[in-house]
């Protein structure tokens, strides 16, 4: 399951956190990466693939992020500046991935809007592979 929210100005987090809390994840009121116009570097997140259970090394674009707060069973997989950006949780027979920006389904995945050094599509592929690997067969 993917939990994709947004920053508190663009998403109703109070009730959304009722669901997220079941997995040890809370979307906080702290907003990050407030990108002005097309200054894409303000939204850059550098993911280290070293010992990362989900991602290869990538530079991705995330803007207007809600920083996450995590408790067991959730674990951070991408952090920056002391903030949790992406978290995962194993829950029952499944797995959950949470990110405080809906960057996986919007115009930043197709490669037409971002500079070439951003790899949102590659990160989306990493997530799909992780979710498939963690899916339980019946």
What does this structure look like?
The protein is of the alpha+beta class and 138 residues long. The chain has one domain (2-134). The chain contains 2 helices and 8 strands, in the order βαβββββββα. It has helices at residues 13-20, 120-134; strands at 2-4, 25-32, 44-47, 58-61, 65-70, 74-80, 83-91, 94-99. β6 (74-80) and β7 form a beta hairpin. The chain starts with a strand and ends with a helix. The model has no long low-confidence stretch (mean pLDDT 88).
Layout of helices and strands:
Layout: E1 2-4, H1 13-20, E2 25-32, E3 44-47, E4 58-61, E5 65-70, E6 74-80, E7 83-91, E8 94-99, H2 120-134
Parallel strand pairs: 1-8
Antiparallel strand pairs: 2-5, 3-4, 6-7, 7-8
């Amino acid at each position: 399951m993917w939990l994709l929210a947004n920053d508190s100005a663009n998403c109703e987090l109070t009730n959304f956190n009722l669901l997220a809390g079941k997995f040890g994840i809370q979307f906080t009121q702290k907003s990050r990466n407030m990108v002005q116009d097309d200054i894409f570097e303000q939204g850059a997140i550098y993911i280290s693939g070293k010992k990362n259970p989900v991602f290869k090394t990538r530079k991705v674009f995330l803007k207007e992020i809600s920083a996450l707060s995590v408790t067991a069973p959730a674990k951070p997989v991408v952090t920056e500046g002391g903030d949790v950006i992406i978290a995962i949780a194993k829950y029952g027979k499944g797995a959950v991935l949470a990110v405080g920006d809906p960057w996986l389904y919007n115009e930043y995945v197709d490669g037409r809007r971002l500079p070439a050094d951003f790899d949102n599509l590659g990160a989306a592929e990493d997530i799909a592979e992780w979710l498939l690997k963690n899916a339980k067969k019946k």
